[in-house]
Every structure is written in C-alpha cells, then in structure tokens.
Amino acid sequence: MQLADPRPLGFDPERLRRIDAFLDRDYLAPRRLPHAQILVARDGVPVHFSTQGEAAPGVKLRDDAIFRIASMTKPVTSVAYMMLLEEGRTSLDQPVAAVVPELKGLAVHGGGAAAPMTMLDLLRHTSGFTYDFQYHSAVDAAYREHRLNVLKPSRSLEDFVAALGALPLEFAPGEAWNYSVSTDVLGLVVQRLAGVRFEDFLAERIFGPLGMADTGFEVPPDKLDRLPEAWWVHPQQGVIVYDLAGAQSDWAKPPVLVSGGGGLASTTADYHRFCRMLLGGGALDGARLLGRKTLELMTRNHLPGGADLTQLSRSMFSEAIYSGQGFGLGFGINLDPVRAMNPGSAGEYYWGGIFSTYFFIDPVERLSVVFMTQLMPSSTYPIRRQLKAMVYAALTG
Predict the structure, then answer these.
(1) Measured between alpha carbons, how far is 3 from 339 in angstroms, rounded to an integer?
(2) 7-72+198-393: in CATH 3.40.710.10
(3) Is a pLDDT exceeding 70 seen at residue 270?
C-alpha cells in the first residue's frame, strides 16, 4: 500500500511506529492475538499501515488478508437502507411490518402495549430484538431454544425473520437500547424494497461503485489463501481455533443466512475505501452513494430523548463503549470524550465486530482508522481504547 509522508498530514512518524511495537509486545508476542493489521489515514490518505503475526501456524499474515468483519457489516447494511430512503422507497418512521408482515403484532415479554416497530428502531437497536448470546433475559433464552443463532445459523434470512415473528420482544420498541439482530432484519427490508437479493444489492450498489473487490459474504476459491484462521477465547477451554483458515473456513462456502448484521468478509484496504466514502460525505472517486445531509443525519445521536447508552442500554455485550456514547443510524457516536475517558472528538463515529475488528472516523480531525484481527469475543481485551489513544497521541497538527 502506498503511504504518504505523515508529517505534512499532521502525524509524528515515530509515534505511529510505536503502535506496531505496542501490538507486538502486548498482543502478538504473548499470543493474545494471532495477528494484527492497522491502517491510519487523514483526509483519506494512508499515513500508516502495518501487518504483523500469522494467518495460521507458520504462515505469515498477508497485506491483502481477508478478514471476517462480523458486525462491521452493520454500517454497510445501514448505508444500503438509507440509499433506498433517498430514492423515496421508505422512511425512518415506516412500520417494519409494512415491509415485513411476518413481524406484525409482535408481543412484548411480560405483557404491556407496544407502539409499532419502525425502521428507525432497527437502525438504532431500539427494536426490542436481542441476540442469543446476550444471556440476560427469558427472550434471549428463547432465541437459543429456537436456534436463532447468526454466528452458526441453521435458517435462511427469510426463515430466520419469520421465526423472530413467533417470539416476543424483550421490550416495547423505543423503550430501551439492546444490541440485536435488528440489522439482519434490516437486510431483509433492503431485499424486499429493492426487489433483488440483499447480497446482490450490496455488490452492485456499494461494493462495485466503491471498488471493494474483496468484500462479500463468501470468499471465492481463488482468494481463500488470503483468509486467516480466527481464534476464540472459550470460557472453559481457553484459546481455541474458532474457524479454520482457507478452504476449511465457514466463509469458503455460501452462507446459510446472508447476515446484514455480521456476515461480511473484507480487507483493510476495502473497508478503508468504505470509510473514505463516509468521510467524503457519501461519495468516493466520483461514485456517490449518499447525499451529504443524509450522512450527517446517520452520524447524529438518535437515542430517545438524546440519551446516551448508559441510560438506555440493556445489553450484556455489544461493540460499543457506553459512557458519553450515543447511537446513530448504524454507528456508535462519541458524544463526549471526557465522559468516555479517552482521546477523541465529539461527533466521531465507529463500530466493530465480534472478532475484534474495529474502525472509527473523526470528521473533526478528518481521521479514519481500520484495525483488523481475528479473536472472539471482542470484549476480551481493551485493545480498541489503547489503539485509539495511541493514534491520537501521534496526531500533532
């Protein structure tokens, strides 16, 4: 990857190099992570890129490695929905059941009246849905009982959403925030509104125009040598291999469920192009996906009453930090770096994936960062906060 001199773009080169030394010392050498790749850019121009560690035992990680980005799929799906909104096909206050009648008249666990779930609820995770791995309610227990699992799915997207319609919500839509399968439902919404398969919409309307040639729900045979293994810190067994590298990976075959909430594989370079589009107000290299004002709307806090996640969250697990954080239309939003107790800017937006991948965009500093590794769960280490602090420490101008 071609890198610019960091100094004219306001970065200290030596401080950027400290990031690589930190990753090696604290995570790679002690085998806490299998590998790591990071890209730092300003104004869309890369100033730092590094690749370290192994894709599999004895196999060095490639610069063009393809990673399971999991919930970093969610911002892509959210952009897809907002593209359709711009075309007049939907609105934020449209009831979800108007497009997905399988979800009409959902009950709320414990009883009580519920307002209709809207598209806004799906985008900001106030729908009342949950994940099977939350382990804090009777509703997520029902998800486990009915095998509503997006990591190892047994149902197609249509069947998965139909099964959701037979179970109660955890809370009335708009009442709380809970990290959930909402964005998977949104993927089905995109599919039905557009009249094409969800995966085809992403390929034709987002990945093609942005030049994201290595991004998709399945890694093709000629690229499987670029797919590393993924680790899992198992509660009882410790670190084990969750998904094998290359042709033995689950991503080497067509997905059972095309997950708009977590199914994509991508490269650092491809996701950097997605970030450049976002930082560029919805356009990249002459391809416009969204209008500038639409993107501004997406990256503001949409939690009810202007609340932050500490006030509304019921999640045992998510890709967000909570203090000083809001949630937009597919992104976590940094409302207050002081309360977050980490360097940053108000208005910065971000998200990550369960395999510890992560990105953030700071519109104030015109900064974007993409970090890739493959360790589940992402809550295992505080590496995101650490990397964020080190990136801002390298910003001198």
Answers:
(1) 34
(2) yes
(3) yes
Query: Is the Cα dihedral 167, 170, 172, 178 positive or negative?
Result: negative
Domain 77-194 sits in CATH at: 1.20.58.710
Given a cut of 70, is residue 113 above it in pLDDT? Answer: no
> What are 300-328's pLDDT values in tens digits?
999 999 999 999 998 877 787 778 999 99
In this predicted model, which residue has the larger pLDDT, 136 or 194?
194
State the pLDDT at residue 114. 76
Q: So where are the chain's domains?
A: 7-72+198-393, 77-194
